[in-house]
Design brief:
heterodimer; A: alpha/beta; Rossmann fold; 5-stranded parallel beta sheet; 9 strands; B: 321 residues; alpha/beta; 7-stranded mixed beta sheet; 5-stranded mixed beta sheet; 12 helices; globular
Amino acid sequence: MLGAEKIKEFEIFALKIRIEAMKAIGNLGFGHVGGALSIADALAVLYGGVMNVDPKNPRWDDRDWLICSKGHAGPAVYAALALRGYFPLEELMTLNKPGTHLPSHCDRNLTIGVDMTTGSLGQGSSLAVGVALGNRLDGRENYTYLILGDGEIQEGQVWEAALYAAQQKLDNLIAFIDYNKKQLDGFTKEINDLGDIKAKFESFGWHGQEVDGSNVKEIYEAIERAKEVKGKPSVIVLHTIKGKGWSFAENTASNHHMTVSKEQMEEALDELYKKLEKAVTR
Amino acid sequence: MSAILAKNRIREDKEMRNAYCETLMELAEKDERIVVLDADLMSSMGMKPFLKAYPERTFNVGIQEANMIGVAAGLSATGKIPFAHSFGPFATRRCFDQIFLSCGYSRLNVRITGSDPGVTASYNGGTHMPFEDMGIMRNIPDITILEPVDSVMLRDLIKQTANLYGVFYTRLLRKNAVKIYEEGSTFEIGKGVQLRDGKDVTIIATGIMVDEALKAAEALEVDGISARVLNMFTLKPIDKETIIKSAEETGAIVTAENHNVINGLGSAVAEVLVENRPVPMERVGVFDRFGEVGPESYLRERFNLTASDIMEKVKKVIARK
């Protein structure tokens, strides 16, 4: 069970990820707001406690790996990394600027702490299977975490990887689906309905769970349960909200990629800082 | 590099696939980082002995090439040295984005082998006949593209790639090759091999067309034409220096490949010539056509991939000098 203090810590971390991601995107004036904000809670749980990593030694062999296959969530991943101490927070202001180490989509060769290059949807799933296999071959007991977008799982490669991960009984692989119900062009339901994602993965031989993806306690406990599962990979379907944390984004129909004016950024930060203050003083 | 031309250019006893498997087993014995991936073609590729010897280092993902490439890339990120195989079209065309991004752009360390090049796909027909595999792969920055001509070269190159870092595409004849090199020959990736000197023209060939080029050169000699023959087994990086030198010394070039001339050897050589030392040039290869089914001998005639096609182009290019 997760104590109240730790829950509070995760919640604060998640808000800080949202704040830093919004500063970076707002400073640029546009970006993938929706999917960065929806995955912040899971990233907070992962980088805020679950993952065994060392920011001073980012390529440490025995570390846990994170492959954010929905590479466009880069700003949220970078915020989590910076907050965790991989690089200075100020660097977040260089997002997508000439010569930056922080491109729109995650790049293992540019950003300290990013384990894998992603951006062409679906590909992170196979990469994660390869990493999990490689680590198992070497007898390591670390975990590979994979974050997939909900729209992303429309890609066939995800299901190729899902089949093979089950075939290989990869119990060192834990995947998350950021089920925010939306993709670039609209609602997943109206474009190519994903149906019962948990049941789909289960039918592929995975252990499945479904939790409130905005609730750090539920996310944490689902990971703990996933680690208990032997002989099969695990998927945790995170029911999330695209644009979570900034009301305007949450209420904007098309929030996958948005322009963010200075005023809007201030408005978002004001909302998020108020939530942070509330969380800290609670 | 010390390559010695075989005294007798006869069909080798051993199939290329068996030489490939043996070489990988040799490497795997010495280096536990070597892993093998396949997409349900291990039997066709003669890789069962590897599977038997190293089951834990063999990953047959089933019929899913895109996943195979991604898994290979992931394995390489953990320090493994993966060799992934499929038939040429499926090892390249089918999973190009995965090779481009998960391997190339990600700067990971993956070797991809595409078998049954061009007309050697024979009875599998047009769907399985890659005339474009090397051309597709040429678009990936910093990739190395190799087409070993016989088992001697194959063994040497595979061993070399195991100790290098990057993305490698090896275009592999699956069955018996014509022996071009004597045992013990060694090669330098990125350097063409001069198999025969000549002063009137240079024939630059790769793969099954190397033997045809040598046959053509021998027949041309009777007609009083002195043809130099180069085996350009590395398509990328292309050996500019040797191409320019040959253009200067022989004043005419003919390329010969079992591949579409578009973005294959013909294109690569032409690019070097026009930018450095333009001389008359002709190409032997597949001129923008899809593959077809049939016996290899028939297909070689049908797609104009014979020694006499090379001779014809040599005469044409010399007339243009």
